[in-house]
Amino acid sequence: MNWAEFFHMGGYALYVWPVYIVTAVILIANVVIPFRAERRILRDIARNLRRESRDVK
Amino acid sequence: MWVWFHKLGSPRYFWGFSQKLMPWLIMACCLAFLIGLPWALVFSPADYQQGETVRIMYIHVPAAMMSMMIYVVMASAGAVNLIWRIKLAELVAAASAPIGASFTLLALITGSLWGKPMWGTWWAWDARLTSELILLFLYLGFIALYNAIEDRRSAGRAAAILALVGVVNIPIIHYSVEWWFTLHQGPTTQGMRVGGSIDPSMRYPLFTMMIAFNLFYVMTLIKRTRTLVLQQERNSGWVREMVGSR
C-alpha cells in the first residue's frame, strides 16, 4: 500500500477524512478546555490568597 | 467498598485520589488510541459493501455508544444527588453534560458523512437519527438549565430532574432500529458477545476504539469535575491550604 492510495480511501476520501478531522477537533477541544479551566481557577485562588495576606499586613 | 465510596464522595478526598489516578488514565487512553487508530485506518480491511467508508464506523459507533452511556451516567449522578444530596454527584452530572453533548454531535456528524455516500442523503427523519438529535437537545437543555439558575443547589436539582425525565429517550434510541424499520440499519455488535454479525477483523479494532472512547470520557470527566470541585470549595480550608503550599 502506498500513501496516495491511503489518502484516496478507495474514492471515499471526501467522507472518511472529514470524519477523522472532526473527531480530532472535538477530542482535542475536550482535552484543552478542562485542562485550561483547572489551571485558570488554581491561579485565581492563588491570587486571592496573596491579596488577602497582603491586606492583613 | 461502601466506606471507600463514601470517602470518595467528599470533595477533598476526590481531589487527592483523582490527582494520583490522572497520569495513569492519560497513559491508558493514549495507548488505546495509539492501537485503535492505525488499526481502524490502515490494518482493518475495507468492507465488501461499504468499501473504505467502513472506517467511519470506528468513530461513529463508539461516539454514538458514548452519547447514550454518558447520558445514563449523567442521569444516575443526578438521581444520586436528588436522593442522597451528595454534592460531588451533582458536579459529576454537570461535568458529564458537555462531554456527552460533544459525543452526540460527533455521532450525528460522522453518521451524516457516512449517510451521504451510502444512503445518498446527509440527513433523514429516520427514527434513530431523530431520537439521537433529541438526545443532543436534552444535553443542551441540561446545560442551559444548570447555568440559568443562580443558586447552585437548586440548579443541580432542577437539571437532575430534566436528565431523569429524558432517560426515556435512551431505550427509544437503542431499540429504534428494531421498532421502526426506516433507514438506519440494525445492530451489528451484541455487546461483547462473540458471534455478532460483524467479522472479527473489524470487531476487534471497533472494541479497541470503544475502550479508547470510554477511557477518554473518564479522563475528561475527572478533569472537569476537579475544576468544578475547586470552584465550589474555593473558600474552604483544604483548598486554601493546597493552593498555598503549591
Please supply descriptive tags for the structure shown above.
heterodimer, A: 57 residues, mainly alpha, 88% helix, B: 246 residues, Four Helix Bundle (Hemerythrin (Met), subunit A), globular
Topology:
The complex is a heterodimer of chains A (57) and B (246).
Chain A: H1 3-8, H2 13-56
Chain B: H1 2-8, H2 11-43, H3 54-84, H4 87-119, H5 127-148, H6 152-166, H7 169-179, H8 200-233, H9 237-244
Helix pairs in contact in B: 2-8, 3-4, 3-6, 3-8, 4-5, 4-6, 4-8, 5-6, 5-7
How would you describe what is shown here?
Chain A contains 2 helices and no strands. Chain A is mainly alpha-helical. Chain A has one domain (10-56). The longest helix of chain A has 44 residues, at 13-56. Chain A is rod-shaped and about 70 Å long. Chain B is mostly helical and 246 residues long. Helices cover 79% and strands 0% of the residues of chain B. In chain B, α5 packs antiparallel against α6 (152-166). The A-B interface holds A 1, 6, 9-12, 15-16, 18-20, 22-23, 26-27, 29-31, 34-35, 37-38, 41-42, 44-46, 48-49 and B 41-42, 46, 51-53, 55-56, 59-60, 63, 99, 102-103, 105-106, 109-110, 113-114, 116-117, 216, 220, 223-224, 226-227, 230-231, 234, 239-240, 243-244, 246.
Overall pLDDT of chain A: 89
Strand fraction of chain A equals: under 5%
How much β-strand is present in the residues of chain B? under 5%
Structural class designation of chain B: mainly alpha
The number of distinct β-strands of chain B equals 0
What sequence of helices (H) and strands (E) makes up the elements of chain A?
Answer: HH
Say how many strands of chain A there are: 0
| Domains of chain B, number | 1
Sum this structure up briefly.
Helix content of chain A is 88%, strand content 0%.
